[in-house]
Design a protein that fits this description.
Helices cover about 60% and strands about 5% of the residues. It has about 475 residues and is mainly alpha-helical.
Length: about 475
Amino acid sequence: MFLEQLTFEAHSRGYEVFAVNTQLTEALAELDQILPSAGKRLYLVDGYVRYRKAVRHIGKRLPANSILVCAGGQGIDHILYSEIAEDMCGVPREIDLNILDSNEISDWDHLLERWGFWENRIEEDRIDRLDFLRAQCGSENRSIMLSLFRDTRLSRKIDEIVNFFIRQNRQHSKAFIAVLINALCQNHVEWSRISDWLEIDNSQLKIAVSLSPVGDFMSGASRWYEFTSTELASYILNNYDFDIEEMVEVYSKIVRETAYSANDPRGGFDSRENLKELMRFRFLTRLFSSPTSGVDAINAVYQRLAIVPRIRENDQFWLQYAMARMELDDLDSAETYLNTAIGLATKKGEDYSKRQIIDQRVRLRFRKYARQKVNINKNELLDACQDLTNLVNEKNEPLVHPLRSAQHILDFLEEKADKLDLAIIAALKDTVGVMKDKMPTGRLDKSQKGETEVIRKNIRSCFLILANL
């Protein structure tokens, strides 16, 4: 939606807009032909990580009269700001589209009033409605959307959609799950492939879509199988009871076939990028969010996918699998998988970043040695302290990821403080001191709502405990 609005605004200001959604060699050659133009041009890349090669190509050749706009997409949190600046050959301006300013909040109020979505709140004066958007919705687009899904007539329409596919027309339930999964993946996997893999009768499904309320939320006649809203797809998956085994089956099939497609020497790029998106642990937690069966479902998925060689040989697969086991408190298996991930990552050379894996290993070690009956391995704890200090000290890297270890250090200290020798105490004091010094006065970049204060409190508690040892 935002990129479409940006395209419209750019056109109105006299810019030609080029959407870049490939990085094939011939496409980059075509870019070389149009980049030197004297006219005003805007190059739009929907997925910085996915099309990073194209971003670098454009960044090195971008004339002063043109603009390069990149949507962050999944995985952007783990890329150094300095790397992004180098790729784009300048100082990029980062805009958080989820956080609204006063004018945008006012626009939301006007939109909700114009189309009748305020419902009972329309009786409140405008100041109270704006305060609701700021205070209760945190001035966030996503929170406002979720409030609409929950508390307005949209919620009744969503109920109708789910009932139509999951209860009234069970023959289409797998197809509906596939539509939702692909929406979470930004519709990057071609629907024609998904329907072939799952043996979906598209003609019958299209008829069903046209007869159901879901048609209002699809992308139109030509792309009738695409949800227009990732947030709506996520909301449906998070708030309705699907057959978990059916979800595991559909998701695993899509991922397996995507992995096989990644072996194509020419067209495999998109499949390899799709595979990264589909297998992120964060993606899986959005897909399988049930508090009772979600984690078990995620682990069932990893067990099924481990038989695929391309997946099994990927360090990120073992990292994500380890994170899933940590959610179940199976730290022994998680440690094994993290060691496998480090081994595979090391084979890729010194320039390949192991930051995410090491970050998770630090958390695991503090959790492991916080257990009552587990004897402390001094060398492993000293290594964890040094690894964490190095992670926190990395320049231009989001601090929130390594600082999340503060909770695990606090749990460890509360359990084992009286069993620590002087060397471990000294190392912990140094590490926590660095964390305290690096903690900003404001909100941590990339942090979740309310997370900054929790981290700050945990670091302060660790510091006080250590000061008394």
